[in-house]
Amino acid sequence: MEAILAACDLEFTYPDGTLALRGLSLEIERGEKVAVLGPNGAGKSTLFLHFNGIFRPRRGKILWQGREVRYDRSFLAALRQKVGIVFQDPDSQLFAASVFQEVSFGPLNMGLPREEAKRRVERALAVTGIEDLKDKPTHFLSYGQKKRVCIAAVLAMDPEVLVLDEPTASLDPLLSEQITGLMEEINRVGKTVVISTHDVDLAYSWADRIFVMKGGQLLAGGRPEEVFLQPQVVRQAGLTLPWILEVYLELRRRGWSLGPRPPRRKEDLWACLPSASQAFGQLFRPANG
Amino acid sequence: MSMNGIEKYAYGNRWRRVHPAEKVAFALGTLVLVLHTGCPWMSLAVFCLMSGLLVGLGGVSWRFYLRLLLIPFAFLAAAVIALALAITWEESGTVLYGLRVGNLIIGITEYGVAEGAGLLLRALSGVSCLYFLALTTPIAEILQVFRRMGLPPLLAELMALVYRFTFVLWDTASSMYVSQASRLGYSSWCRSLSSLGQLVANLFLKSLQRSQMLNAALLARGFDGEFRVLEPAYRLSKGRIFLIVLWLVFLAALDWYGGGGGVGSYFGRL
């Protein structure tokens, strides 16, 4: 597997002197679902803005498919088409008067002919399930609807990597589940999806790979169960254990044999729980795991 | 409040599917002609027509429409009173009601009343034309027509952005107001002044911050200095265009034959 996007020894300082990234390196592979975790102010959003060249690192570099990103007009234009960013606050992303116009902005910037752009817009609206909002002004939408418009606006550009900054923050459980489903669907058609989140349950169940950041540095990276099974990482980054993992660990501590690998999804956990009669048998077995 | 109301109707009225160019031509054409003619009868007719199209056929609630009409009414009332009042010499015998001050009479003259009524009708008819446009056509589509008519793109984009961010600014300001008020920020006159000052100052900073975020978000989608968006397709209707042209020609003909006096010249001044 080749890395589609990589950060090498990234360093970035804001104009006010805040050191936001301090020698951060990570690699994202093609087709992966990646979750970036870490406390507020860890530098997640700053890192994301490096991914399509909005921010330019003070030191270090970004690699796109193994090639160093250059900050000239044509390279940036190509990069921004390949890497789409959905910002956390929809109101800072939406500018157009109607949803249709908003979504058509990206495709037209790519220089697509109007007919093709229109097709793209319609497809993006269909995928995100907001066709009926087409002619609505963006300021009449609910928060969840705005969020979908933002995602559609980026999807219409058909990026290879979709970067979402806290996509489920301040959404109700149902909407949050729908957005997660949407990200799953986007990933299924072969796109790489990178999100930042504070929701450890979401990150644990959804992601193929997790990066934990703190203070502008990478604390840990790897498969979700690997990362969460390192107590010092969880403690340092101020995370909590996903409930699935917590249940698994507790049951194992009490002597249940639940298979060698921790379950990732709710369904996997259910599957490795024995039925009542089996469990009864277990109670009388010497408890040594 | 009424800004949101106007918006709601602009996006959901029965003339919504009509091509915006037709609506712009109809409303602005009528506006220009009725203002030029200045005939009270014609003004009245146009006012009734526009109101009928909005309230009767367009589905706009008449309460809302009346509230909107009240906005310019305050200004109008002042102007009409000023016009109707006149200071005349004793001999001019058309004073309906007057107050004598030495040789002068301050009062309402027949001419002044006619002038005032004419102005009132003229203004109301003009306002009704603009309300027809505002309540049936979203700003985005009006701008689209203007752009086709040759308005510089920079100006059109500026108008569109101002329009969009008026709402963002309003939301930001009102949430700041609520948060201040809930911490007793407006409990006294003095507190109110200081809170309002802070609100305005912070609003400026927040707007600045937001504009930077927006710029980043636009760049992320390949913004290169020009706003390009797809405009929804509308179909022009030959029948409606014919009717609009007929109507405008009719108004223009009345205007022309009336020698600038409109039909009023035939029926006599009000």
CATH class term of the largest domain in chain A: Alpha Beta
- Class computed from helices, strands and strand pairing of chain B: mainly alpha
Quickly count the helices of chain B.
10
Q: Uncertain runs of chain B with pLDDT below 50, 5 residues or more?
A: 261-270
- Percentage of residues in strands of chain B: 5-15%
Mean pLDDT of chain A: 90
- How many β-strand stretches of chain B? 3
Secondary-structure content class of chain A? alpha/beta
Total tally of structural domains of chain B = 2
Q: Cα distance, first to last residue of chain A? A: 37 Å
The figure for the number of domains of chain A is: 2
Number of DSSP helices of chain A? 12
Question: For the largest beta sheet of chain A, what order do the strands appear in spatially?
Answer: 6-7-8-3-9-10
Runs of chain A in which pLDDT lies below 50 for 5 or more consecutive residues are none
Helices and strands in order:
The complex is a heterodimer of chains A (289) and B (270).
Chain A lengths: L2 E11 L5 E11 L3 E5 L6 H8 L7 E6 L2 E2 L4 H10 E4 L12 H11 L4 H14 L15 H13 L5 E5 L7 H16 L3 E5 L3 H7 L2 E6 L2 E6 L1 H5 L2 H6 L6 H11 L12 H7 L3 H8 L6
Helix pairs in contact in A: 3-4, 3-5, 4-5
Chain B lengths: L1 H10 L8 H18 L2 H18 L4 H23 E5 L5 E7 L2 E6 H27 L2 H10 L4 H29 L7 H32 L17 H20 L6 H4 L3
Antiparallel strand pairs in B: 1-3, 2-3
Helix pairs in contact in B: 1-5, 2-5, 2-9, 3-5, 4-5, 6-7, 7-8
